[in-house]
Amino acid sequence: MVPLNYYLILSAIVFAIGVVGVLIRRNLIVVLMSIELMLNAVNLTFIAFARHLGSMAGQVAVFFVMAVAAAEAVIGLAIIISVFRQSRTLDPQNMQLLKW
Amino acid sequence: MVAPEFSTIASDLLRWIPLIPLCATVLNLFWGRAWGNRTAGAVACAAVGASFAIALYLFWQLPANGVLRDPVYTWIESGLFKVNVAFQVDALTEVMLLFVTGVGFLIHIYSLGYMAHDEGFARFFVYFNLFIFFMLLLVMADNLVLLFVGWEGVGLCSYLLIGFWYRDIGNTIAGNKAFIVNRIGDFGFILGIFLLVTGLARQGIWTVDFLELQKHIQLLSPAMIGAITLLLFIGATGKSAQIPLFVWLPDAMAGPTPVSALIHAATMVTAGVYMTARLHFLFVLAPATLSLIAWIAAATAFFAATIALTQNDIKKVLAYSTISQLGYMFLAVGVAAFSAAIFHVFTHAFFKACLFLGSGSVIHALDGEQDMRKMGGLKNRMPTTYWTYLIATLAIAGAPFTAGFFSKDLILWEAFSRGAMILWGIGLITAGLTAFYMFRQLFMVFHGESRGDDHAKADLHEAPAVMTFPLVILAIGSIFAGWIGAPEYLWGSRWEHWLQPMFGAVAAQESSVATEIFITVLTLVVVAVGIYWAFAKYGRAAAMGAPSAAEQGFFYRLSLNKYYIDEIYDYLFVRPFTACSRFFAEFLDPRVIDGAVNGAAAVARGLSWVWCGLQTGNVQHYAAGLLVGTLALLAYFLGQ
């Protein structure tokens, strides 16, 4: 049996990769994927704690997160497509229309 | 002084007198151009005619010592202070009503002919009817505030009609001058109203109603009444063109001639006299103000008459003559002879309207020529205009048994019999001057050889019947309007009797009838000298166009240039004011005011520069901000 800490460390590493991806990548699709990565890192902690504590509540939360992540991906991709149609670019640094 | 008791009778008819011209204004405003000149003119004339008919009907309805009242609605109500839109007709108002609507009706008919070829025909009658509405509001108001509304309204219409031919910038400037000079007077007027209301309010009486004011006037201190009457008189000097605010009236001649006849001769300019007569109960309690009024009035009458002696513009002569005659009216006010003042207002409306319309007829025939040096010899070409003009000239000069004879004589007699000898003397000399300049005008315009160019001579024609008809009626009025106010030694005055309930019984005169007749004869001699002098100088002279030796004289040039009053005012008031305005506009506003505002903005922008660097517009920077914040919170809570 793998100890809980291993899961938590793995989850923290994946989460950190996601954060860095959101902050530095120049492609919106990769940014979106990084967000998914962060969500899944959180899912991993939920599962690990559920297993460790023998409780079903963590697994239920994971289903919610997955449902939300699916919806978020749909909306995010739709926005990305319409942005691309407008500006022919996916670089978030070029999207500054609402700046003063 | 005990306020006279009036029997008050309610009558719904009153509101229709001002309302009908207002309706015509609205109709012509929206449909006048679509209807065309015939219908628009007919609507406008019919409206004033209807008001005249109602006024005539009320004349028979009005009981002696009675007041007709028509409270329409409450306009302003604030605590104890209340202003009604309410009309009242007493003997004084009835007189004003009859000649405002009557003379107004005739001038409307005349305008049908005079304005026939003008593209602004419908607009002209919109303004004209609006003027009649405001004038009726002014004379029928039962309180000071509503009177002030009418007062301002006629000023507005005056402005609109002076600048009626707005494509000529000079006309617009003249309109502005009239409006601005009147604002100065109105400032005094409105301060007078405030002082009157607050003065009474301090005694616990909140009212602007004339009858109520008259009842409670004793509560005010004499000093207070002096200040109030002085301020009100400043308003009257503006509207009725007295020294020092008379300068707008000669310039107001820029408007169409029927406007000069209706507004700047017969009705509006007499509003100041009406106002003082309406508030006579106030003025009689302020002897200092009254004597000031008398002196200013006598000075105005004389001063304007001397300017009129040398003017060459046919309408300018009449304008200065109007100022001079208004001086006579205020002279009567100044010696507390209010019914004589209103009598002169009444007769003056006839002969001055007739003179203006006659001059309009001449100008019309000569295609807009107003210079009398280019006229002459019109007597045979325009017989109706000539004869009516002659009658009106006789009337204003004060020839025996014309309207002006009775009214001017009454004023001079009142001044004499109340001991104001110097004022009477000035009035007497002015009567001679009046006779001179009016007959000078008559000779220059109608007698001698024609001095116009050949083109003008060929076109010369008598005015159409629609214009000569009002002339004839007004000429008849110029003779007979005075007969109702004849002195006691002739057939007695119905006028005094009619207005007696208004102004109270006149104190029995000490002087004998012989003195009165002597004064009258003296006036007539002075008038005859004036006429003869005019005849000697202008009646036979063939070449009136060329300057004579006298025209090189100092006094001649002084009079011709109106004593340089406009130039003096220009240097004293207009230039300092424009310099002051320029200082504000070119230095204070752009540098100081704008500088402060822009400076505040610049400071805010400079400070915000630090923070607006944070708003990069880059989503990832914001996300990094979120992360930093979250980590900081986390570190804080974990550290505890």
What would you note in describing this structure?
The complex is a heterodimer of chains A (100) and B (640). By secondary structure, chain A is mostly helical. Chain A has one domain (4-90): Helix Hairpins, CATH 1.10.287.3510. Chain A is built from three helices and no strands. Chain A has helices at residues 4-24, 28-53, 57-87. In chain A, helix 1 packs antiparallel against helix 2 and helix 2 packs antiparallel against helix 3 (57-87). Chain B has helices spanning 16-35, 37-61, 91-114, 121-140, 144-162, 169-202, 210-216, 222-239, 248-251, 257-266, 271-278, 280-283, 287-308, 314-334, 338-365, 383-397, 403-417, 421-446, 454-459, 465-480, 494-503, 513-539, 554-560, 565-612, 619-639, and strands at 7-10, 66-78, 81-89. Chain B has a three-stranded mixed β-sheet. Chain B contains 25 helices and three strands. With 640 residues, chain B is mostly helical. In chain B, a hairpin with a 2-residue loop joins strand 2 and strand 3 (81-89). The chains are: A mainly alpha (100), B mainly alpha (640). Chain A binds chain B through residues 19, 22-24, 31, 92-93, 95-100, and chain B through 612, 615-620, 623-624, 627.
List key phrases describing it:
heterodimer; A: 100 residues; mainly alpha; B: mainly alpha; 2 domains; three-stranded mixed β-sheet; globular
